[in-house]
Design goal:
heterodimer; A: mainly alpha; MetI-like fold; 0% strand; B: mainly alpha; membrane (chain B)
């Protein structure tokens, strides 16, 4: 078998020319989906973690219930619940003027992913905030620092150092989970792959997608490892 | 409200029985992944700790690939890949016709591989906490390699690995919802069918979420019991 024939099995030039540009678009959609929902999820997750550690019992229960629900059920079911479930209340959303939001699969997927990752990130933030030694709070109090200063300048930097490892894992989980968005008609990397396969019936398309996903995940993992070592360089 | 509840009843016209059957498929699929996934994960962990280079390289590749690929993609690759491979093999043998792979089997293989990859990391972590003295004690007592592993090392590993394995089990249980995309009639697929017939997405997807939640809660209980049992030598005598 000549090298060209072998190449045609794993990277057919014709196929690449036909679907290459689409794959790049799909990659961008995946990146956008993950970036936006992960960032918004971090904000919401931080609030949830603070709510879970607050003095108010009602807030604690509410946050705990939220986290329990979103961590205990599959993302796929949550996405369908939001997209098909909330999307079926057309009249209600039209009255509120929010129909443009729930009509679009893109916004629903963003919302579902944000809510889902917020629950996981809340647990990470909570664990990392609890990992800060109590002496740090006492020292901040002894120095008469304001509550906001204590949180942002003393507690948060130390807890983020603990959180960055698990947060990286969560980011990788999100990148993988974003493939689910293809099931509600979004053309992310997975969506493009399924489209290309359904037209060409060439199995190598799936292998391209596998390689691309592996590359992304591996690059993200190595970058985060590097970042973690850099942030913790005063520790060793 | 009562109309909606009657949709969930077990009588004719209700979807209760269909959902229950789907839920059973979901649970049995997740359970069916354990007999392959657990030993394979342990094997990969052992290979990763091997002194030879080849097993180490295999173990790293295996766990990188199956932990890095989206579960949906793994599932589709195994499903369509096996189908195409089987078709090619049969065509070479002279059989011309449509070949369909059993979806349950394909899903079982795919999720077992993913579960093995994730659990191998847990086993590896557990290996690191095992004191070296345990192995030396085995050698000092003249225990064979096999006896030493099964009677001394494995019980201690299992105790340490249980919390991690429980996390893996929970994600496996939730990942099984993806099989609805290769039209295996699990809980999610039944829910989709129910929604397309009754046009009540809010109710049925809500119920599906709650059923998954119930399974998660139940397995949480079981794992808590298992953990208590495996840690019973560490508890003080009760007053």
């Amino acid at each position: 078998m000549s090298p060209e024939q072998l190449l045609a099995y794993v990277l057919d030039p014709d196929l690449l020319e036909r679907y290459g540009a689409r794959f790049v678009d799909g990659l961008l959609v995946t990146a956008k989906l993950v970036a936006i929902s992960f960032t918004l999820g971090a904000l919401l997750g931080m609030f949830l973690a603070l709510a879970r550690m607050s003095q108010s019992l009602a807030l604690q229960r509410l946050a705990a219930g939220y986290v329990y629900f979103f961590r205990g059920s599959p993302l796929l079911a949550q996405l369908f619940l939001l997209y098909y479930g909330l999307g079926s209340l057309k009249g209600f959303w039209q009255d509120l003027g929010l129909w443009w939001f729930f009509r679009e699969a893109w916004y629903c997927a963003l919302l579902a992913f944000t809510l889902n990752t917020a629950a996981y990130q809340a647990e990470i933030f909570r664990a990392s905030l609890m990992a800060v030694a109590p002496g740090q709070y006492e020292a901040a109090k002894a120095l008469n620092l304001k509550r906001s200063t204590t949180f942002f300048k003393v507690v948060l930097p130390q807890s983020l150092l603990v959180a960055i490892g698990p947060l990286g894992n969560e980011l990788i989980m999100m990148i993988k989970a974003s493939a689910i968005a293809s099931l509600v008609t979004i053309y992310d990397l997975m969506g493009v792959t399924k489209l290309a396969f359904s037209r060409s019936f060439d199995f190598q398309i799936y292998l391209w997608a596998a390689v691309l996903y592996l590359l992304i995940v591996e690059v993200v993992r190595r970058t985060l490892k590097h970042l973690e070592a850099r942030l913790g360089r005063h520790l060793n | 409200m009562l109309d909606q509840l009657s949709l969930l009843s077990f009588a004719s016209g209700g979807w209760g029985q269909a959902l229950l059957a789907g839920a059973l498929v979901t649970v049995s699929l997740a359970l069916a992944c354990l007999p392959i996934g657990l030993p394979l994960g342990l094997l990969v962990a052992l290979a990763a700790r091997s002194r030879k280079r080849l097993p180490r390289a295999w173990a790293t590749t295996f766990s990188t690939v199956f932990r890095g690929l989206p579960e949906l993609l793994t599932l589709l690759i195994i499903y369509y890949g096996c189908q195409i491979a089987a078709q090619k093999v049969l065509a070479a043998l002279g059989y011309e016709g449509e070949v369909l792979i059993n979806t349950f089997l394909a899903a079982m293989v795919a999720f077992s591989l993913v579960f093995a990859a994730f659990s191998s990391e847990i086993w590896l972590m557990a290996f690191k906490t095992l004191p070296k003295g345990q192995l030396e004690a085995c050698a000092a007592l003249g225990l064979g390699k096999r006896t030493g592993f099964f009677r001394v090392v494995l019980p201690q590993l299992t105790r340490i690995a249980l919390p991690g394995l429980s996390n893996n089990w929970l994600s496996l249980l939730k990942d099984t919802s993806l099989v609805s995309t290769i039209s295996l009639i699990d809980l999610m697929r039944q829910t989709n069918l129910a929604v397309s017939v009754t046009k009540e997405p809010m109710l049925f997807y809500g119920v599906a979420c709650l059923v998954y939640l119930l399974f998660s809660a139940l397995s949480g209980r079981v794992f808590a019991l298992l953990e208590r049992r495996s840690n019973r030598h560490l508890q003080g005598a009760r007053p």
